[in-house]
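May I ask you to comment on the folded chain given beneath this request?
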Amino acid sequence: MSGWSALRAYAALPATTGPWYLVITLLGRIPASMGQLGSLLLVSGATGSLALGGATAAAFAVGQATGGPIIGKSADRYGHRPTGLVAALLHALALVLLVVCVEQDAPTWAALASSVVAGASVPQVGPLSRARWTALAHHGRLPANRFPTAMSFEGTSDEFAFVLGPALVGIIATATSPRTAVLMAAALTATACVSFALHPTATLVTRGGEKDGAATAPVLRVPVFLLAAGLAGLGCYFGSVQAGVTWRAVDAGSEGAAGLIYAILGLSSALAGVFVPMLPASFPLARRLQAGFALLAVLSLPLAIVGGLSIGGLWPLGLLIVLPGITIAPILVTAYTQAEMTVPVQRISWVMTLLTSSVVIGYAIGALLSGTLADRYGPLAAFLVALGAACVGVTASGLGRRRLAALRPG
């Protein structure tokens, strides 16, 4: 498939899934990116304590990281429809309960518990959607040469949701209140995520309980671990860069600019993700993953120097953050494409949610570590942690290059 033919393959995706599937999956990802910031603004605004708001947001992240693989494993065992419905309804109810706890001045533990449940029940639309594309490919309804295009669409959708979710929270919270923003996330969950759970593609994912050869096929645990380690490094990179950018914005007296600058990272990644199918088949996935992490580290150097040494104002950060952004979606698309080859199709939901949780865990580590170091030593410490996180990805993909190169579809 030529480069431009690969791009034209995007237009063929709706014919495989139905016209509304792509819209539903995009909308269904947005609540997950709204919950953490929404809970922070809700609690800190009501209590006047940024520390308590941060603890609530952290509880949401911990719940999301631990609950993701559980939801994925349940989806493999019981099916996407029942698992998706339970997760969506529980998530929406937990968000509403969080609002009630804050409004009624309930004990702190009640708000934290609600946030944990809300995080643990995030419907995992992105990972489960990737599992459905894998099932479509195994059923022969998605040609093999279009699977990379489907994965690129998924990566681009993740990045757009990553940008749109916090932006919506900020707009709604400013125009009305943080409570309205959290309730909007609950409403979107009850509509888009429920629609995703009920979509006909949910029935294509074979349950792991069925007794056939594929169901008993082994999981390639070392490649899964290597991919998870690499994406944990990528998540740590996200958290560290956000901490460094936030320090610079606060120091300049423009706190709101931090979100805008960081959003550019997601936008440049989303745009780069669109063109991933144009990469030649002669560029193997294992080599592509290692090259992506190496390029991430190299292209982050100007950002680390300018941001860490406080050279110029904030606008250079907005320009330089575009450079590492163009490597992120290709890394994610490549990692998830390889993940599809590490497990039988009956366990694909589990491995997809595991990788997503690895990113979340890495982000939490990066944000905590870099925020602490930046408070003590300045922004350079945060950007150095980001470079180190990129090197973790280089190391994981390099150590496992031979094993990852041996992976084959199916």
User: Anything to note?
Assistant: Residues 261 and 318 are 5 Å apart (CA to CA). Confidence is low (pLDDT under 50) at residues 210-216. The chain is about 80% helix and 0% strand.
